[in-house]
Amino acid sequence: MSSMLAPQADRVMALGEWEERWQDDRIGFHQPHVHKMLERHLDTVLNGRTSVRFFFPLCGKAVDMKWLADMGHSVVGVEISEKAIQQFFEENNMTYSEEPVPAIPGAKVYKSSEKNISLYQSDLYSFSSSIEGQFGAIWDRGSLVAINPRDREKYAALIISLMGKDCRYLLDTLLYNPELYKGPPFFVPDEQVRSLFGSSCDMELLESVDALTDRQRTWGLDFFTENVHLITPKSS
After folding, report:
1. Which of 69, 155, 181, 223 could form an S-S bond across to 115 if both were Cys, CB 3.0 to 4.6 Å?
2. Helix, strand or coil, per DSSP, at residue 4
3. pLDDT digits over 56-81, tens only?
4. Minimal CA–CA distance to 174: which of 203, 216, 139?
């Protein structure tokens, strides 16, 4: 597996680079509609539950958050870009409050006045279960594939620590030839998903689809596969 990961192993995106992308509107990763994988697999994630607490790592301004809140679920997101968070509320015509987070120096939390949505402007790794407890569901699209590859073990440990006993974690990963494109989004093979989460979680590949579009062709890619995994804590 290490040879597969080698081309991107040392790739680093500083937090400031992500903030610059938001400032400059270079956000080709943002989708203006609810993600089709979340729509298709929502019933599997909910598993008959109502009023589920969802966690969105590196949430950006994903419209998925309002979609879930409109159904009566609650949403907590973490995002480094203040602009992304403000745009989320403004573009959805939602009023919000803004307050500091005593446990995370320099962080702020933006809370919707109408819906159960709280978005933390913070470095993801400063966030923990001591801030908002654990979650019943996690939607990871554009998060594991966006973090620096060398941080994946640290990331997985954080995600596992945020999972409640009944948590259902929907993870979206991307497969392509990392020799041809340096990322982000980064290449995350199924073998690595297993090595990151397999010791404490059960895993199921829900869907694998050909996601190649002209956008990926301009990156020089000839195949681009999107995999969706359901990850759940092993019952102890």
Report:
1. 69
2. helix
3. 999 999 999 999 999 999 999 999 99
4. 216
